[in-house]
Amino acid sequence: MLISELAQRTGVSVHALRHYERMGLLRPRRLANGYRDYAPQARREVVFIAMSRALGFGLPRIAEYLRAWRAGRIGPAELVDAMHERAREIDAQIAALQAQRTQALAHADWLRARQSEQDRARHGAPPRASWPRVRRASAP
């Protein structure tokens, strides 16, 4: 099948298909007129590539999986394991982003407090006393 037909059947752009070929993920044969001719199994491979990209897998890693799949070195169970590993990576990224968000908000609060103190000082108001520390009552 020609590249335009493969693009239509998979929902992946012709531009992306050419990129995947340059990266070595797809291997169409060339017709006498220079057109790309994709084998029927290319449709399944393109869907696999698109699905993997949507999950955040990088093209080098996808290329490894495709080579192993074509060679019969991995099967569905290994791909499921890879997806579970990707889910763990996503969880770690989420945790890191949540920590960054917390830190960003804490820094914003600190800066806002400093700005408030500077504004008060500019208008001649005495600095506010800081809140006393709350101590736990000691046990009798």
UniProtKB/TrEMBL annotation:
Region forming the signal peptide: none
Region span, Disordered: 114-140
Pfam families associated with the record: MerR, MerR-DNA-bind
GO molecular function: DNA binding; DNA-binding transcription factor activity
Protein name, as recorded: MerR family DNA-binding transcriptional regulator
InterPro entries: DNA-bd_dom_put_sf (IPR009061), MerR-type_HTH_dom (IPR000551), MerR_fam (IPR047057), Tscrpt_reg_MerR_DNA-bd (IPR015358)
Highest taxon, organism lineage: Bacteria
Transmembrane residue ranges: none
Domain HTH merR-type: 1-68
Keywords: DNA-binding, Repressor, Transcription, Transcription regulation
